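Predict the 3D structure for this chain.
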Amino acid sequence: MTQADIIWRFIREHHGQVTIADVESIGLSKKVLYRMAQANQIEKLDPGVFIDPKEFGDNLAGLQYRFPKGIYFKDTALFLHGMIDRTPEIYEMNFPMSNPHSASQNTQVKMYRQIERLYSIGIEKVKSPGGHLVKTYNIERTLCDIIRKRDHTDAETLGQAMRNYAVMPKKNLLRLIEYADLFKVKEEIENYMAVLL
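Done. Predicted structure below.
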């Protein structure tokens, strides 16, 4: 079995995607990836991330590989949770304050930074539309975030998300109020819930 065969097997087992780090972790040379890309066998999605274009079409997972500290945020988180019915035009990610990336490095991503204590609250993994696990904030944290930044989120999106949350069977109202207090949006959250519940 050639190195390329081993890489193809890895790609098939990992939803059409492989990274340089993956290849090096199984003891192969990253040069094989570059040769496969030059031969148009695979496609470079982002720096260090390669895909089988026939199988893979997941920008969210590609960006997560590129920005491992990024947590999908606001409208992108709402989309991942199925709380809004449109795909965001620009993906939003939250990073710790120490993150070195600049927003200008990728036009697909709007980057936010937050102090570590707040950045790490409510992170969970969900499946992207392409079937890959990506990091986002839980829905209660996301609702607080969109209220805090509501000047950037249109009223229709906010209303749709709140209505969908109100009818969710597995909503966690205690966590929502706890986060609302922490992020200083308790009054707004309570007003929404009083109308919708």
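The mean pLDDT is 87.
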